Amino acid sequence: MKLLRNLVLLLLAVGLAGCGYNAMQRQDEAVKAAWSEVLNQYQRRADLVPNLVATVKGYAQHEEKVFTEVADARARVGSIQATPELANDPAALAKFQAAQGQLGNALSRLMAVSENYPNLKADGLFQNLQAQLEGTENRITVARQRYVQAVQQYNALIRTFPNNLTAKMFGYTVKPNFSVQNEQAISTAPKVDFGGAAPAPAASAH
Fold it and tell me: What is the model's pTM?
């Protein structure tokens, strides 16, 4: 009886493996890991916002429109709860990337302000923050590309026969993906202080 039970379990395991169950498990974990890295890099960028705003404001206090745009975009980013489930909801993912894209655009305008202020461009703290932001934008691009590839591989896996039968049986569904344009960040955003306080030291690059 025990031998028969073990044989049935063995055949079941072989059957599941042949129908792609194990591959789906691995690819699903790869998607989750890639998503975590995307959020990590967005958080890295979010953490730079307060120091960037404070530093630029120290030299360009009358650029209020730009500061307001950054604050508003940062608030939209912070209003979205970046839970793991967000990546499985097409509408939530679209809202996520739209808010992140708005923040990216606002930060680009903030950095462009420096062109009008030579003393700001020469400030060592500003140069350090600028370098960190540029590096973070590159990391975001890489993380997004890897996530897009992981989702594409996962979706292709669960849509092909006979894997699609296994996917349906175990509840694996097609995941939404980033569109070509833009990006959302993290649920608890750092506070952007527009007061007259001196800029805080730049955070060290992770």
Answer: 0.76
